[in-house]
């Protein structure tokens, strides 16, 4: 039942993107961009023995003045459940997995500017999950559908060639498959969503 609902959600996203691409393209001036996330700066925290090893690249097309579609490629690793809310447990090593998870994903994104440079966006990411033991040995692989709803504002510079997008997001991962029992135990009691996640994306138009 869950899988049918989430397939319907992804299909709806694709239909929205297809309809915008069909009817909303500005034939005279389509705008392409390449970008990423400032979260990659966390990789430079050399005091952290377990950095996220987060990497992301975005390829996008501004198909009208208000509509943007993009493809995101990303990978990162994490040591504890994503659903731990803000509070003392968020960075508590006692909540760690018996190892870590490495995700490799691609996301389809639709972004809609609703007032001036304020926007709403939805990201639907399909991710291959690698479950690793403490020594970094892959013990099992699975799949995750990861949905992000985002609200933010775009600031443009240098003749609109460069932009940054601070935002706030809610994330939800309704589908996860083939999770090892030891990792399931660590997940017990925590949410399958996370609220008020900050974001800071940037990009270059060409």
Evaluate the radius of gyration.
Answer: 18 Å
Strand content: over 45%
Going by helix content, strand content and strand pairing, the class is mainly beta
Compute the separation of the termini in Å: 43 Å
- Whole-number mean pLDDT: 88
- The amount of helix comes to 10-25%
Give the biggest beta sheet.
8 strands, antiparallel, barrel
Count of alpha/pi helices:
2
Q: How many strands appear in the DSSP assignment? A: 9
**Order of helix and strand elements from N to C terminus:** HEEEEEEEEHE
Query: Which residues form runs of ≥5 with pLDDT under 50?
Result: 1-7, 12-27
Which strand order does the major sheet show?
Answer: 1-2-3-4-5-6-8-9
Shape, principal axes of CA atoms = elongated
Compact overview of the structure:
The chain is mostly beta strands. The chain has helices at about 1-25, 180-185; strands at about 30-35, 55-60, 65-80, 100-115, 120-130, 140-155, 155, 160-175, 195-205.
Describe it for me?
It is a single chain. The chain is mainly β and 206 residues long. It is built from 2 helices and 9 strands; from the N terminus they run αββββββββαβ. It has an 8-stranded antiparallel β-barrel. 19% of the residues are buried. Residues 1-7 and 12-27 have low confidence and may be disordered.
């Amino acid at each position: 039942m869950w899988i049918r609902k989430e397939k319907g959600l992804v299909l709806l996203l694709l239909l929205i993107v297809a309809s915008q691409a069909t009817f909303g393209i500005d034939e005279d001036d389509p705008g392409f961009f390449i970008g990423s996330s400032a979260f990659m700066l966390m990789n430079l925290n050399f005091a952290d023995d377990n950095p996220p090893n987060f990497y992301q690249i975005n390829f996008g097309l501004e198909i009208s003045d208000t509509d943007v579609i993009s493809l995101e490629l990303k990978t990162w690793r994490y040591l504890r459940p994503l659903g731990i809310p803000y509070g003392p447990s968020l960075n508590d090593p006692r909540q760690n997995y018996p190892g870590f998870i490495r995700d490799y994903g691609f996301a389809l994104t639709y972004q809609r500017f609703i007032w001036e440079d304020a926007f709403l966006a939805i990201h639907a990411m399909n991710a291959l999950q690698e479950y690793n033991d403490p020594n970094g040995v892959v013990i099992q692989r699975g799949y995750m559908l990861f949905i992000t709803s985002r609200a933010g504002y775009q600031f443009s510079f240098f003749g609109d060639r460069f932009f940054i997008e601070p935002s706030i997001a809610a994330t939800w991962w309704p589908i996860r498959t083939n999770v090892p029992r030891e990792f399931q135990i660590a997940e017990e009691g925590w949410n399958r969503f996370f609220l008020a996640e900050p974001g800071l994306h940037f990009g270059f138009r060409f």
